[in-house]
Backbone:
C-alpha cells in the first residue's frame, strides 16, 4: 500500500483549511464602511434581554446585532456586561441614526440607559472604539448578511 507524499498531505491540509475558513465566512455578518464584522443575532426577547452579558472579551471583528420588528426609540443598558461597547442604532432602512460611544460596563444597579434618540429597528454592539475608528456619521448604511 502506498502512502501519500508529503506534498499531497500538505495540499490536502491546505484544501481542508480553506474549506473550514470558507464555512466560517458563511456565518452571519454585517458590513459597515467596508469593514466586516461576524455577528451573533439577537432577534427574540430572551436573546435581546441577555445580549452580551457576562462576556469578558469579544474579538475585534465581532459584534451582536439586535433585531426588532418595529421602529421606536430604543434604550439599552449594560447590566452585567463586562466589556465596554459602542452601541450603533439603525433605522428600518439600515441607516445609522445615532451612536453611543465607549459605553462602560455596569456591574451593579442602578445601570444607566443609553438611548437611540430616534426610532431604531437595529442595534449593533461592537467593541468600544470601533465607531470612531470607522469614522461613522449619521446616514451610514449597514449591510446585513444572514
Residues:
Amino acid at each position: 500500500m502506498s502512502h501519500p507524499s508529503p506534498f499531497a498531505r500538505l495540499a490536502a491540509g491546505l484544501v481542508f483549511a480553506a474549506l473550514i475558513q470558507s464555512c466560517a465566512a458563511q456565518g452571519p455578518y454585517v458590513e459597515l464602511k467596508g469593514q466586516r464584522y461576524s455577528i451573533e443575532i439577537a432577534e427574540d426577547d430572551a436573546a435581546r434581554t441577555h445580549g452580551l452579558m457576562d462576556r469578558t472579551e469579544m474579538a475585534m471583528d465581532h459584534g451582536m446585532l439586535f433585531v426588532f420588528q418595529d421602529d421606536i426609540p430604543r434604550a439599552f443598558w449594560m447590566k452585567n456586561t463586562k466589556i465596554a461597547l459602542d452601541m450603533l442604532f439603525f433605522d428600518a432602512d439600515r441607516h445609522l441614526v445615532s451612536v453611543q460611544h465607549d459605553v462602560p460596563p455596569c456591574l451593579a444597579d442602578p445601570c444607566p440607559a443609553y438611548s437611540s434618540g430616534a426610532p431604531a429597528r437595529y442595534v449593533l454592539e461592537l467593541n468600544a472604539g470601533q465607531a470612531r475608528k470607522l469614522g461613522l456619521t449619521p446616514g451610514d448604511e449597514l449591510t446585513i448578511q444572514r
Remarks:
- The CA atoms of residues 89 and 100 lie 8 Å apart.
